[in-house]
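hey all, quick one before standup. I had two proteins in the batch that finished overnight and I want to keep them in one place so we stop losing track of which output belongs to which input. First protein below, input sequence then structure tokens straight from the run.
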Amino acid sequence: MSKPFPRLGRRRALQTAAAGAVALGLLLCWLLPLGEEPPSGTITFSTGTRAGVYQKYGDLLRKEFRKDMPDLKVKLLTSAGSQENVERVATGKADFTIAAADAVETYQQNHGRGADQLRGVARLYDDYVQLVVPADSDIRSVADLKGKRVSIGPVNSGVRLIADRVLKAAGLDPGKDIQPRAEGIDTGPRLLGHGLDAFFWSGGLPTDGLKQLAERSAFRFVPIPPSLVSRLHVDGSATRYYRATNMPASAYPSVQNNTTVPTMAVSNLLITREDMDPELTEWLTRTVLKSRDGIGRHVHSAQLVDVRTAIYTDPVPLHDGARRYYRSVKP
């Protein structure tokens, strides 16, 4: 029979507690800049559509910013998605945002106002393209969308940018060969089978809007095969950010029946402008990285944020404040 563990005396217990407090203090010194007052003021953060990952992630980040920078007010703006987000930051309508890399490069290639001022804070996680149809639909491929009522996302959304390109790669003209609709993830799911034959969505896995749809209605995903992604790459430019992959079976278990779905993914970036205060940007970068696990319990995609890959913010260079943070934690 094993012997019971000896009971710690009061003095020993106090010593142990004190040692733990010191260790915690050292950890906090690593997480937060020593001797600096947290930034204050007001910033605007552009998120995305309701029921989308950008909106939920932005709301959770605001709560984390409040913990580290209690005197910093963060105003959240909903948006159509990546294209509008990039334009807002570039033109000063917002200070920080999340946007897909292809939308950032497209804005640069179109010589959008302020494009040269865009700077990266962190590479976050990948968006997965999700083409959704009713379970009993006769649509089995992207080409089968011809003549159908298809939501290609709101104007100025990242979804619209991707859907147009995917349709063209499949030989379809988005303006002529389908009946285009502009629904977002907040409205598209409830219209599926009731005015919509299919809808495109590009977002982190899983997305709340689709999880909720799975609870009340049967649907399935239409595959986007590697051959179609290869045709996208022929165009060059921003399509180089698309990579062929599989949606894991665990994304929507009740829908996927333990099978993966061929699709494509694109990385998301947290971006700002060159003129953003370096100290503020450093603090914000630190909070984004250290809050990964806490936010990841609510937004699964956030679990993929990693300091080793966060520095790769191509096609925009790192902001000086973000670079300062990454250098401070470099082993």
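OK second protein, same deal, sequence then tokens:
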Amino acid sequence: MPFPFTVEQKQTVFWVAVWLAFLFLLVALGPVLTPFLAAAILAYALNPGVDYLANLRFGRFGVPRPLAVLIVVVLFFLALTALVLIVMPVLQTEVPLLQAQIPQFLTKLNNILSPKLREMGIKVQLDGTGIKKILSQQLATSGEEIWSAVLASARVGGTAVLGWIATLVLIPVVLFYLLLDWHRMLERISGAVPRRWVGQTVNMAKEVDSLLAQYLRGQLLVMLVLAAYYSGGLMIAGFDVALPVGIITGLLVFIPYLGFGLGLILALIAAVLQFTDWSGVIAVAIIYGCGQVLEGFFLTPRLVGERIGLNPLAVIFALLAFGQLFGFVGVLLALPTSAVLMVAFKHLRRHYLRSTFYNA
């Protein structure tokens, strides 16, 4: 005898299946949705600025929302351009100097390592002449394999470059339209929620919004503190490029590994170019090692984790777990996503404690 379903239960099963199919479609279209997801994150962060400008009044006149959106988007991309303009002069200055210093650096490296390698029975020259000889031998023995690998990587790399260009072009366009229709989209989403759940959903959305706002403020404080720390540390160590390298490292720290890695590479290049001994490299190792400890164990758990109510151990676990599951993007979104999940778990726990299953 078939189990009798009520009309409400049938509708629930139907709409749950529809939403599961929709989520599956989103997962399948993940690469296509990248610019839309990035634009949505930026729109959420920039919408308060748009609302502020749109609510300004100059006598009887106000700022139209399209104009407010245009101003905020232009200012945002001008800030990104300014960051690039800070990075590029450092690279343009250091890279040619590094190329000029490479032969001298290889000679030093050869004088240090070659005697030890000869003691181990390995005869190799690590200066410019020796490395050229090794490379010519490798190219002569595996030229066809290298050529085929270069062609394959060029095809894959060309497709990736086109994808990145399309993404970079789409993000500003999508960002503009999302900010323009932000409140109407929120109203449509709210209108799609079943009426019996709309109160709880709105309350959860407000909690999530409050937590994410605190996360953004905490992350901004971390960036400012680290920018000041790296700039001050490199300046005390006597680096000529202390200010730009420190600012780059601090401001890009919101992108895990990239900001720290780029700043570390620039600082190491500066150390090789500016100092004749190993003191510069040692200073960079100490400054950036202490900076990682400061960020990982104090600043991020305290200024970000505590603001969103996450224990320092939970912050570290979230970064590792989301990085394992979703790679670089997962690390980038680990803490804000954990804040959202924490709100959901809090409401789920409250519902569980009130259920007959728990109280029976």
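Flagging for whoever picks this up: The first helix runs from residue 7 to 28. The mean pLDDT is 75.
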